[in-house]
Amino acid sequence: MSAALPPLSARYAGRRVLVTGARGFLGRAVCDRLTAEGAEVWAPSRAALDLLDRAATKAALAEARPEIVVHCAVDGGGLGWMAAHPIESGLHNTLMNAHIIEAAEACGATRFIGAGSACAYPRLCPVPFTEDHLWDGYPEPTNGPYAQSKRTLIDLCAAYWAQRRFFAVTPLLANLYGPGDHLDPGRAHVVSALLQRVVSLPPEAPLTVWGSGRPTREFIYIDDAVEGLLRCADLDEPTTINIGTGEEHSIAALAEAVCAAADHRGGITFDPTKPDGQPRKCLSAEKAATLLGWRAQVGLAEGLRRTVAWYRAARAA
Ligand SMILES: NC(=O)c1ccc[n+]([C@@H]2O[C@H](COP(=O)([O-])OP(=O)(O)OC[C@H]3O[C@@H](n4cnc5c(N)ncnc54)[C@H](OP(=O)(O)O)[C@@H]3O)[C@@H](O)[C@H]2O)c1
Fold first, then answer.
1. For residues 175-191, average pLDDT
2. Domain at 11-177+219-246+282-297, CATH class
């Protein structure tokens, strides 16, 4: 990270910040970071603020009047959940995104940051994905409706800036991993799912990985994602921007790194009867470096080492 960057507290200290999805993986980490930076964090549960309810969302924000809104709520899960719930992942997220941006602008907030996703990129896109290719084709169909809800939020951010000069931005995040990730098998993403399986295996048993191992993905450590996301409030004006590492790893390489982090020596086998999904996925990190002076700091090996330590401690507790 550039030493010239002002501390995050310069933007957030003493500010009333609404974090939606504050009990989720990203939202919890955002709340912790904002609290450490001296922000006054408002973190309503879903029961206290249901974003599917347009009128209630507008009324709650009008009353609480947050100055900054960081929108991390999502009706989601792992890829399997997305594929099995195309209605919820499309309809619910489109509604929640529309309601929260509308309420944020109406209550007089000065900044809206909505968590976007690399899923919004076309299924086939030159790697690394640069922001100017975002609209070049349809996303990976297994999470199409979810990806389209992110695209709608990106479009709404641009519309609110163009028509009302309301600062609203939807940074596109790479796959997150790290301490605090979901452990529930129905919601776990690839890193957490692999890690849990490796840690539970007998020492000599191989780790079985779905698919050929050839598709590539990118993984950003949770603390880096939070830093990059929150830094987007400092953009001169809203723009499409990736928050990633720029480092592409094959699933086979990821599996090896997870085994190394957990000191598992049973080897790896692949199950080619399972689908591979999108062939390649990796965000360019260059626009964020240029506009924000920011780059991710935690490499995959170090991030996995920390995550394994957290997982072992959580299991033992
Ligand atoms: N995880 C990743 O790898 C990843 C990668 C790229 C982008 N992102 C983006 O990062 C954001 C956060 O993801 P995450 O993995 O942290 O999600 P998560 O752990 O599933 O958390 C989502 C949160 O949203 C809340 N929520 C769901 N429906 C709601 C509603 N109707 N009203 C209010 N709150 C509601 C949930 O509340 P309950 O707990 O009460 O259900 C939960 O706290 C999302 O926008 C996601 O697209 C995540």
1. 88
2. alpha beta
